[in-house]
Design brief:
eight-stranded mixed β-sheet, flat
Length: 156
């Protein structure tokens, strides 16, 4: 093989490697997921959102039905206001429950919607009334250690 053919093959494999890295970066950043069809906006207020991030998934029954579009702090109520873009094909009752879950033990966090039984449906711009904040692992561990320390002092 002469030098130019060898350089051509090396360049070809480098280009494939760069394309593969770009593909993986887009997958990890949730940027390659197809756009949802017509969406509508819902809001949910949480005391603690943990590590929830913009562009994180919104799931119901394990199926991605939307994305988180914005997270803001409400200085009047001292709560985090999460804005959800939900696919227009899916309608949810007014008594839907929004919770923050973690995928796996240390995976990404997402908003899960658990449907209720109300006949009235949420409309664009509505706020989900029933929410459950994220479980913060560090807070649970510190509470456990504090309670064990308190038990140890009571025995003395």
């Amino acid at each position: 093989m002469n030098r130019t053919v060898l350089d051509l093959w090396v360049g070809f494999f480098v280009a494939i490697g760069i394309a593969a890295l770009l593909f993986l970066a887009l997958k990890v950043g949730n940027l390659s997921s197809g756009h949802l069809s017509e969406t509508y906006v819902l809001h949910a207020k949480f005391d603690n959102i943990g590590g929830l991030k913009v562009r994180g998934p919104v799931k119901s029954a394990g199926v991605v039905i939307g994305r988180i579009s914005d997270i803001k702090f409400d200085p009047a109520t001292y709560e985090a206001v999460v804005t959800l873009n939900v696919d227009g094909r899916y309608q949810f009752p007014k008594d839907t429950f929004a919770s923050i879950y973690t995928a796996g033990l240390l995976g990404e966090q997402y908003v899960g919607l658990d449907v209720g039984g109300d006949e009235k449906m949420l409309k664009a711009g509505d706020t989900i009334a029933k929410t459950q904040s994220a479980v913060v692992l560090e807070k649970m561990i510190s509470q456990f250690l504090f309670s064990k320390a308190a038990d140890g002092q009571d025995k003395k």
